[in-house]
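Private note to self, pasted from the team thread so I don't lose it. Backbone tokens:
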């Protein structure tokens, strides 16, 4: 079926009317709604379908009430989920309607790859990165996939570098495989040096045959989110070892950054150049901090300073960029490494003329062959809101996170984590979009996350901090608004404390 203008009009009308409805108040469906929706799921494949109209009714009336409000309610504070801006939501429906396969750069046939590459270039601009420096850029399924790309490129680079030292310039993991490449390069160990890595980094190391155990945490004792640069030098010096350094630019439990000023990134760059190491930045949500301008966010800006010195960067679209799942992005400075690792060989029917300046075919620079047109929602959202719009969203998110943190800091019942020696203004200046805390009362603390979730009104995630349960807000929805949201949050938290003291 061709996409007629009436199809698009219908889609636009549907999404616009969904957006006009008040977003659901509660972050979670009621237990009854959940049970009901589960019971309504089709048990057997129908022989005859029930048709389009009935199907849509079935989904909206029976099933959707069982969804959580992760994107449509701004009160869902779990897992840095993000929402979807109206422009991105509409564009995502168009992606489905047009069903472009963005796989090969075919400039005479479609503008899709041009749009994807331009979007990535606009994204560089948004994040204060010079697009000309990041020629290997692509959209991925999310930050996990981007981390796989980063470690794959890093793996290729560090063994090539080690082989060059041994006068064998031809080594390519992509070509001859990891074992042979390591052997030829005289390398018997690969290490990935980092501080508080996201779990997906170990997963990426496992997928790529380097092993989860190759991820080594070298953090400062006093500040475990920070990379220990003295130790870094010692580890890089290890004979027979090739290294990738992964900078956790905003760590998922605390939102804190692995580096805190430009000079630290410059020193890391200098050391990595000396030892042929690759610098990857996991900036899934932290890279967005580069948008900030006001002195109120100086600590965050310093945490993002110098990230442009890295070799590769991971970012997420479905987190702070607030586009629908599944969307991540990846930038690397090394165009030639992209094809060493990802070149789809011998697919003559897929070839397009590729000179060094032309847009690279997505299938030759990332994991997938056929690909969804993930760029369009990002393009639409950047076009609709621009730099100022995105900065405003991020500032509102940080302001709400800081409002929550201030409330907790001043309350009798809770403590803000990680414990800071400074005063409240210092504690707040470190807050990005994540607030980690626990109840002082051990009994309440054990039940805290479940009790908050049981209200259904707001959603928080549980985690562990220094061996004890802790609770975490991640403010990542574009609708975040301290005036509307903070009163609800404080009310829910206070009610949880009161209920428990009543029952004990
Ligand atoms: C969320 C996150 C990831 C994984 O991202 P997905 O998009 O869920 O795959 C990786 N690194 C960091 C720092 C994250 O916050």
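Design output:
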């Amino acid at each position: 079926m061709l996409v007629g203008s009436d199809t698009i009009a219908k889609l636009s009308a549907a999404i616009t009317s969904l957006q006009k409805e008040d977003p659901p108040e509660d972050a979670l469906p009621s237990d009854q709604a959940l049970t009901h929706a589960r019971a309504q799921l089709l048990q057997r494949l129908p022989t005859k379908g029930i048709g389009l109209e009935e199907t849509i009714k079935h989904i909206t009336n029976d099933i959707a009430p069982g969804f959580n409000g992760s994107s449509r309610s701004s009160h869902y504070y779990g897992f840095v989920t993000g929402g979807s801006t109206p422009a991105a939501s509409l564009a995502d429906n168009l992606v489905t309607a047009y069903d472009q396969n963005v796989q090969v750069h075919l400039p005479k046939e479609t503008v899709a790859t041009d749009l994807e590459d331009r979007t990535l270039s606009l994204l560089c601009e948004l994040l204060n990165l010079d697009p000309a420096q990041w020629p290997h850029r692509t959209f991925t399924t999310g930050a996990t996939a981007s981390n796989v790309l980063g470690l794959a490129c890093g793996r290729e680079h560090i063994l090539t570098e080690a082989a060059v030292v041994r006068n064998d310039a031809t080594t390519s993991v992509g070509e001859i495989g990891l074992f042979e490449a390591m052997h030829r390069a005289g390398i018997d160990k690969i290490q990935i040096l980092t501080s508080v890595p996201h779990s997906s980094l170990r997963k990426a190391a496992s997928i790529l045959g380097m092993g989860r155990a190759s991820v080594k945490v070298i953090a400062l004792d006093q500040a475990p989110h920070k990379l220990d640069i003295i130790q870094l030098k010692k580890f890089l010096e290890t004979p027979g070892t090739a290294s990738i350094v992964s900078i956790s630019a905003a760590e998922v439990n605390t939102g804190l950054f692995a580096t805190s000023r430009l000079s630290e990134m410059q020193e890391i760059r200098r050391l990595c150049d000396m030892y042929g190491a690759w610098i990857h930045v996991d900036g899934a949500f932290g890279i967005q901090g580069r948008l900030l301008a006001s002195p109120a966010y100086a600590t965050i800006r310093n945490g993002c300073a110098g990230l442009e010195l890295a070799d590769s960067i991971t970012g997420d679209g479905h987190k702070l960029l607030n586009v629908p799942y599944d969307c991540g992005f990846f930038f690397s400075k090394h165009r030639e490494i992209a094809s060493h690792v990802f070149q789809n060989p011998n697919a003559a029917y897929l070839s397009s003329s590729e000179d060094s300046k032309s847009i690279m075919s997505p299938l030759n620079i990332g994991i997938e062959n056929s690909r969804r047109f993930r760029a369009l929602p990002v393009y639409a959202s950047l076009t609709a809101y621009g730099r100022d719009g995105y900065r405003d969203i991020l500032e509102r998110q940080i302001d709400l996170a800081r409002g929550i943190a201030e409330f907790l800091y001043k309350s009798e019942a809770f403590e803000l984590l990680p414990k800071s020696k400074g005063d409240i203004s210092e504690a707040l200046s470190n807050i990005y979009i994540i607030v980690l805390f626990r109840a002082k009362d051990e009994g309440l603390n054990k039940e805290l996350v479940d009790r908050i979730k049981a209200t259904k009104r707001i959603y928080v995630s549980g985690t562990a901090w220094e061996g004890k349960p802790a609770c975490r807000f991640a403010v990542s929805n574009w609708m975040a608004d301290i005036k509307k949201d903070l009163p609800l949050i404080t009310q829910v938290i206070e009610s949880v404390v009161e209920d428990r003291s009543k029952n004990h």
